[in-house]
Amino acid sequence: MLLLLQYTLIFASVLILVALGGCFAEHSGVINLGLEGIMVIGALGGALMMRYAPDGFGAFGIIICVILAAMLFGVAYSSLLGVACINFKANQTIIGTAMNMLGTAAATVIVKAINTATNPNDVSSTIQYVDEKKAFIVNIGSFEFSWFMAVALIGVVVAYIVLYKTKFGLRLMACGEHPQAADSVGINVYKMRWAGVLISGLYGGLGGICYILSGVSEWKFENGVAGFGFLALAVMIFGQWKPSRIAMAALIFGFFRALSNVYFGFPLLVSLEIPGSIYNMLPYIICLIVLAFTSKKSRAPKAEGIPYDKGQR
Amino acid sequence: MMKKILKNEAFQSLFASLLCIILGVAVGYVVLLFINPTGAGEAIMEVLKNFMHYSKTNLQLKNLGGTLVKTAPLIMCSLSILFAYKVGLFNIGAAGQYCVGICASLYCALSLGMGWVPCMIIATVCGALYGAIVGLLKSYCNVNEVISGIMLNWIALYSTNMILTPVKEITSPYTFHLASDAPKAILPTMGLDKLFAGNEKVTIALPLSILIAVLVLIVLEKTKFGYELKATGFNKNAAKYCGMAEKRNIIVTLMISGGIAALGASFLYLTDFEQWSCTSSAVPAMGFNGIAAAFLGGLNPIGTIFSSYFIQHITNGGAFVDKTMYCSQISDLISAIIIYLCGFVFFIKYAMNYLIDKNEEKQALKAKALAEANTQEGGDK
Questions:
Q1: CB proximity B273 to A under 8 Å
Q2: Which residues of chain A are within 8 Å of residue B155 when distances are taken between CB atoms?
Q3: Do B324 and A116 touch (CB under 8 A)?
Q4: Which of B147, B153, B337 is nearest residue A233 as measured by Cβ atoms?
Q5: What's the structural domain count of chain B?
Q6: Residue B18 belongs to some domain of the structure
């Protein structure tokens, strides 16, 4: 039972962080379908940092460095979306999809190159971080508390305050609702959208490193992140683009995702003799059902997905 | 004359696609340079050469055949994405529909012992029904087709793993070979294998896929049905106002799109070229490469035939790079960069038109100035 709670919380943390990333981008008016790729690149940044961090850092030092590296990689990668979709007015769906493919391909190529350079016989795309992982986990009884749960909580609070209680957040949201009106009162729409995209890269990268540290102690970068970026977008839609609701929605999805990891620990569920594949499918099926019921009266930012053209009023 | 060519829509598309390819390959080269500067040039040449890696004509033909076997399903996947895109829908679920096609065709062949024709038909129908789910969710529940498509991709993957487990080898995760267990289900070659040095995996799939590309072109450009679909894509509300059944059109589009992708799957898996691994952890990349091919082909059905071949050519070429220095995923990287650049196609076209117009304006001004000067001179005399 405790194990289920632990996995639910850690998967929910991933979903919260990534969904908040999507939330910032969409509030500024850009649909970020490339979150999956951003997660992979953020995870790559964190994993590389864990691999190359010197030993003398201590647990706290490692946590800070890994988180910063993941954020930095996420932000840098999300600028690809910014350049294409804000400055060159490219189709956001195509660019997002390209970024997902590019993220996995680039991470695989980079990790393989590093592995092969250190050991010519090693052609895998795996990075191991058995020791470094311990820094992120505090054992409370048999419950493994991960620092990322705290990070996700802070993330929600920060997102709420920034979006609703600061001048910047309200201006950002104005650019997603009616950019022409925002522009007419002197807000630089391009700058605001850039800010939204970069913040989404920051959250996405953080979610990525959180995901690969969620249970395993090595990661094969060929696998990407198994659709978590898109699950997070579903969480965001279910959460109606509001940080507090996103947190609630993420807990529900996290629960079903956790169930596929630990269902064999429950005699009742095992006695039902449902194949393991069904549990693997469960989060995605739930997601479809939830979307079917919540998308109709969507409170999506009105101008999302439309490139801003100054000449069009 | 030159100006006419430059302003031609088709020429601009071709130019933009070629520019994307050149830039994509160049970025790939730079990445290789970073990894290991000594063999970068050679590696990129291997990717571009693919089957020309071999010096014997026989082997070359055989490997060209191997590339073509995988080109047929890629053409189908990109047609699937293209068809939906023309109606304003981004069918990223093509990868899942392709997966359903694999599941249906292999299950019918291996478990039910059907021939290749019913296998293909059932696969198409299953793919169409799977696509219809996306359509229903989109038209009646307003669910973004990209997100529902991705979710359905994962559901398709795990279902396929589950359904095909009874027909897999006991010692390995791969399904039975069609050649030994269901020879009836293998697509006929109709003598095509002789053209490719006896590579009997080259079947009627290739001509069929080209035929379907032409069909898609005709349906989209020359029929009332295609016109209505495109109208729905341009403006859903306007289409509804004109009396078109916009909800039905969306569902039908995704059904056709899903059917095409699933048929593509049977084109590959009914040749016994590949077996399905029942422990797969991701949907086949074919559906996603289809996106690259569709956009690289300038969203033209005939263009996709060539762009599909190119994408498959470099993907196969990736296998020939020196494994001690680089990995074969470098071709995935190049195709991903190409898709990214395809997002800029509209900008490239805009820039071309802008430059041409500016040039024209300049020349017109010059001519005018010259003419004025001439008349003034004339007046003095």
A1: no
A2: 281, 284-285, 288
A3: yes
A4: B147
A5: 1
A6: yes
Q: Which fold has domain A2-294?
A: ABC transporter involved in vitamin B12 uptake, BtuC (1.10.3470)
All residues at 6 or more sequence positions from A186 whose CB lies less than 8 Å from its CB, including other chains: none
Q: How far is A120 from chain B (nearest CA, A)?
A: 6
CATH of the domain at B178: 1.10.3470
Give the pLDDT confidence of A4-38 residue by residue, as tens digits: 888 899 899 999 999 999 999 999 989 888 899 99
Q: How far is B366 from chain A (nearest CA, A)?
A: 30
Q: Is 70 exceeded by the pLDDT of residue B378?
A: no
Residue of A nearest to B294 (CA): A94
Residue B222 lies in a domain: yes
Contact list in B for residue A298 (CB cut-off 8 A) is: 142
User: B148 in contact with A at a CB cutoff of 8 Å?
Assistant: yes
- Nearest residue, CB atoms, B155 vs list A80, A99, A284: A284
Most confidently predicted of B120-134, B243-257, B333-347: B120-134
Asked if residue B341 lies in contact with residue A84, where contact means CB atoms within 8 angstroms, the answer is no
Residue B26 placed within a domain: yes
Give CA–CA dist B110/B95, Å, rounded: 22
Q: With contacts defined as CB-CB under 8 Å, which chain A residues touch B161?
A: 277
Q: How far apart are CA B381 and CA B379, in angstroms?
A: 5
pTM: 0.86
Q: What is the pLDDT of residues B196-231, one digit of tens each?
A: 777 778 888 889 999 999 999 999 999 999 998 888
B101 Cβ neighbours under 8 A, 6+ residues apart: B123, B124, B126, B127, B261, B262, B263, B264, B265, B266, B269
Distance (Å, whole) CA B357 – CA B214: 34
* Residue of chain A whose Cα is closest to the Cα of B278: A277
Task: Kindly indicate the confidence band of residue B330, based on its pLDDT and cuts at 50, 70 and 90.
Answer: confident
Residue A242 near residue A173, CB atoms below 8 Å: no
Contact B154 A93 (CB under 8 A): no
Distance of CA A288 to the CA centre of its chain: 19
Nearest-neighbour CA in chain B from A252: distance (Å): 16
B147, A98: Cβ pair inside 8 Å? Answer: no
B262's tokens = 């699933």
Residues in CB range of A37: below 8 A, 6 or more apart: A77, A99, A100, A101, A102, A103, A104, A229
Query: How many whole angstroms from its chain centre is CA A151?
Result: 13
Percent of chain A at pLDDT > 70 equals 99
Answer whether A112 sits within 8 Å of B327, measured CB to CB.
Answer: yes
∠ CA A275-A277-A282, nearest 5°, is 110
Q: Does B27 touch chain A (CB under 8 A)?
A: no
State pLDDT tens for residues A228-285: 888 898 888 888 889 988 998 899 888 888 888 777 777 777 777 777 788 888 888 9
Q: Cα(A86)–Cα(A1) distance, rounded to whole angstroms?
A: 47
Distance CA(A128)–CA(A282), nearest Å, equals 29
B33 part of contact set with chain A, CB < 8 Å: no
**Chain A / chain B CB contacts < 8 angstroms:** 150
* In chain A, where the domains are located: 2-294
- Is residue B172 in some structural domain? yes
Q: Which residues of B touch A106 (CB under 8 A)?
A: 31, 333, 336
